[in-house]
Amino acid sequence: MGIESILGIPTNAFMSQLLLGLMNGAFYAMLSLGLAIIFGLLNVINFLHGAQFMVGAFMAWMLLTWAGVGYWVALLVAPLAVGLAAVLVERLLLRHLYRLDHLYGMLLTFGLMLIVEGVFRKGFGSSGLPYPNTMPGGMDLGFMFLPYYRAWVVVASFAVCLATWLLLEKTRLGSYLRAATENPDVVRAFGINVPVLLTLTYAFGAGLAALAGVMAAPIYQVSPLMGSNLVILVFAVVVIGGMGSIMGSILTGFSLGAIEGLTKLFYPQASATVIFLVMVIVLLVKPAGLFGKIK
After folding, report:
1. Which of 291, 229, 257 is nearest to 40 (CA)?
2. Which end of the chain is more exposed for a tag (fewer CB within 10 A), N or C?
3. How far is 224 from 287, CA to CA, in rounded Å?
4. Whole-prediction pTM value?
């Protein structure tokens, strides 16, 4: 005989809400990971991240609706296309701001976000567009029903985050990237093209946002506002994890998603603000964030 309730909540409802929270946390983790990489290595607060997430979802929708190209191909095509667009943004605009105060980069990317959103609102309107579920159905685990697609999102997001962390922390390429941001002259002396490294870093962070957008398309309505609605929450996740901390973003993203989901069970009115409440508490106790370091 299984456990009928957890903390007074029926087990089925508790686990379902926990899964929903982890799924939201998967998107928080992927988006905050991209933001942390761009801030940690390029020193840019990338407000364009929400728009890059939205464009990834729209590219999946356009590929399917206009060209008949399905979800699995979109998972590769959309991040590559958004990454290429990010190369242009970095080459033409961002690289001129690296030596200036953070405020300049933040204002530039915020303005770009408004332009991209405005273009998509003009072209597609503000209402959401549906995208079919690639993995309909699910599995009865006895204590809960597990939808296949939501399980895929959680597992795939965790795998992407883990692979990114390993790439940056455990490989020679990652060590070059970190060294290039701390002492570019020394790295340049070894024959490494530092500007190209920084360009690829920004493109990779933008591609991560687009990948999350494609994965979100079958769950949320594809809308021009889907990125801006999410990016403020994701910035809070980055601050709680510690600005620029790769592992902090991953762990905090999944944890806060779960906390937000379970809050809906016990006190639904607080679910929209619980992440900001956690941010206030963390900043009071540890101003650099849970995994951040004071420079």
Report:
1. 291
2. N
3. 34
4. 0.91
